[in-house]
Amino acid sequence: MTDSGLAPLPASDRPDTAARLRDALLAASFTADGLLDLLGAPAYAALARSETVPALRATRGDTPLETLVRLFLLQQPVLHARVEAVLPVEEALEAGWLTRVGGDEVSATVDVRPYGGPGGEDWFIVSDLGCAVGGAGGIGQRDEGVVLGVGGASTTLAGITVRTPVSSALDLGTGSGIQALHAVQHATRVTATDLNPRALHITALTLALSGAPAADLREGSLFEPVADDETFDLIVSNPPFVISPGARLTYRDGGMGGDDLCRSLVQQAGERLNEGGFAQFLANWQHVAGEDWQDRLRSWVPRGCDAWIVQREVQDVTQYAELWLRDAGDHRGDPAEYQARYDAWLDEFEARKVKAIGFGWITLRRTGSAEPVVTVEEWPHPVEQPLGETIRAHFDRLDYLREHDDAALLDSHFKLVAEVVQEQVGLPGAEDPEHVVLRQHRGMRRATKVDTVGAGFAGVCDGTLSAGRILDAIAQLVGEDPVLLRDRTPAQIRLLVEQGFLEPVR
Question: Whole-structure pTM over 0.85, yes or no?
């Protein structure tokens, strides 16, 4: 397959060649761990910043691993004889993984980057030359049809995805195939779509070179390639979410007005989900003057779905425009052209009354409840990835709280979640703290302020006594009416359960 202006790709219908290449890469320790051992932490980290000089210095020898790093990761021509000692060169040339350069050298036709799977798997992510994050080409100018490798957004989505075994999964806008690669590990059937046919080709290469099962690859935008009656247990998408004037770069620009692409994606996902199924997206959204951003996002949630929307970052319109102009390398070109493009971004935002752009995660779960729960929050603080299990547990707790009224809640037993600590904040020497904070050291790493009753309640929750009996004991200890305490405390218990500080003992 070829695209105008882009280099030909290796053949995607040669699984035997991909398997032999994979064996050769593994035999030479061309893995995430092998790279770290060879390059050392500073040079390895420099690659993530698109700085290749330390890695070039670390690969001046002639070992098989150094040869492969220079060839596939740094995109340097290498002597045919050196590569022949490591790879099945003639087969790789015939299949298009390598190309001849001059008389006695070969070079790679694609980026190949080792990637460690969640279970210690050795995977390989294929992307266009110079477009692997941390690859030799850096960010810079790209043709609109190029396919990028794994970046921060890709790994974030992979980390937050719920990984329970499912029958069917859909990766919308698959790109280099990283989400599909994760999905084939726990889904019986995986469908991957992309508007860019080159991306589908590269996804096939990524799966084959990683020794993973093939996916059902379909060309088209959003849900267009999916039949009207086709539903899934899991939908994931790292879409082209950038809010920009026009759609200059296919890999990032949505091509719809404002944040309409992300809104359409979320709204259409509900009817594509099986009961209990999850849809998980990365998205950007507009903060519009005179409009509450949380209400804006609530309006996106399709009927019949619980939702958890987390805003991780907000940028003003100038920061946002500069970020993506630099991503495209526009700041390195003609200053007048850069200024004109900058103006176009600001004109677009001004016309739409946009004052800032939010970035974050959106998770939907199809529910049979008549009263879906939609949570929209801002959480810019550090979290512990992977978060897939934390997100699944969040929705399980919503089910529990929905099924238990206050009376049932007081009859229930709870345990304080492991690695939650209590902090008391106040002036030195004060008899009582000003307030008490419960803090998580795992997952979302939340902190929440509680009163003395809430702190005392959480501290003795070990699953042996019901919530009501604990409150009765606290009432006797502090001299409070137990009936009044039972009346006012369930709201605090619900919050502690919802946020993952307490877990029901079932």
Answer: yes
